Amino acid sequence: MGSRSASAQSRSIAFAVVCGAMEGPGFMASLVAGGIAGVSVDLILYPLDTIKTRLQSPQGFNKAGGFRGIYAGVPSAAIGSFPNAAAFFITYEYVKWFLHTDSSSYLMPVKHMLAASAGEVVACLIRVPSEVVKQRAQVSSSSRTFQIFSNVLYQEGIRGLYRGYTSTVLREALWSWRQDHVVDCWQSAVCGAFAGGFAAVVTTPLDVAKTRIMLAKVGSSTASGNVLSALHGVWRTQGLAGLFAGVFPRTAAISLGGFIFLGAYDQTRSLLLELGRGSP
């Protein structure tokens, strides 16, 4: 739902709560609450995301900045988070409406998975440029966010902002396919956190490939965006450890993020609905 980096993927745990609520009259409240909760997750867990990116970077953790400047690139994440979440929610709801089926139909899970996948494809149009700028800032804290954005446009054009689009969509599609059950309480969120942690481990190689593609030097083979080539390059030089670089901060961010998102979402939505009832 929003920078669907590790922190954004954590929102998958609370995904069914949000989308279930959006079927009712509180659609706008759910949309705004989801966006605000997404921004909250991104900002609170941003240090874990920076550590993960630096662990996955080709120059290594220490040369990429270590523990210094762990909020480098945060403006890009903050700017992209809300519109990214909104793009996902709106696309999800529209596709779900377009594929209308009987609620008792055995095709319901398929409808939700297709709608979620379509939501990811559209949301990545916003997420990927934000992610490219953010990750480059995370491994080069001496450069400012706008400067990095300008350099990408100057050197590579719009295409440079969409490096890693394929690997990002693949990664997010795998996440969306596990989101076909309604989460109706915090106990379910606990189960979701464990399931999310497991899924985070399994999809880490795709996340590593995405990071390598986004950080690759202009003109290099990795910069072409070939996911399998990027994975093979990591395997050849670093083996299995390289493919699972950053797995611990990534898993922690995704597991914790679900609870932060759910708490922020519940509080914000309740406040917005209360304000809506009080207005004439």
Task: Describe the model.
The protein is built from 13 helices and no strands. The longest helix has 32 residues, at 247-278. The protein is globular. It has helices at 6-9, 15-21, 27-44, 46-56, 74-98, 108-138, 145-156, 158-161, 165-176, 186-202, 204-215, 227-243, 247-278. The relative contact order is 0.18. The protein is mainly α and 280 residues long. Solcar repeats lie at residues 25-98, 183-271. It comes from Panthera pardus. It holds the Pfam family Mito_carr. It is a multi-pass membrane protein. Belongs to the mitochondrial carrier (TC 2.A.29) family.
Question: In terms of topology, how is this protein built?
Answer:
Elements: H1 6-9, H2 15-21, H3 27-44, H4 46-56, H5 74-98, H6 108-138, H7 145-156, H8 158-161, H9 165-176, H10 186-202, H11 204-215, H12 227-243, H13 247-278
Helix pairs in contact: 3-5, 3-13, 4-13, 5-6, 6-7, 6-9, 9-11, 10-13, 11-12
Query: Structural class, judged by helices and strands?
Result: mainly alpha
Average pLDDT, all residues? 81
| Distance, first to last CA | 33 Å
Share of helical residues: over 70%
Q: What is the strand content?
A: under 5%
Low-pLDDT stretches are: 1-8, 10-14, 179-185
Principal-axis shape equals: globular
Transmembrane segments: 27-48, 69-90, 110-128
Protein name: Mitochondrial S-adenosylmethionine carrier protein
Catalytic activity: S-adenosyl-L-homocysteine(out) + S-adenosyl-L-methionine(in) = S-adenosyl-L-homocysteine(in) + S-adenosyl-L-methionine(out)
Keywords: Membrane, Mitochondrion, Mitochondrion inner membrane, Repeat, Transmembrane, Transmembrane helix, Transport
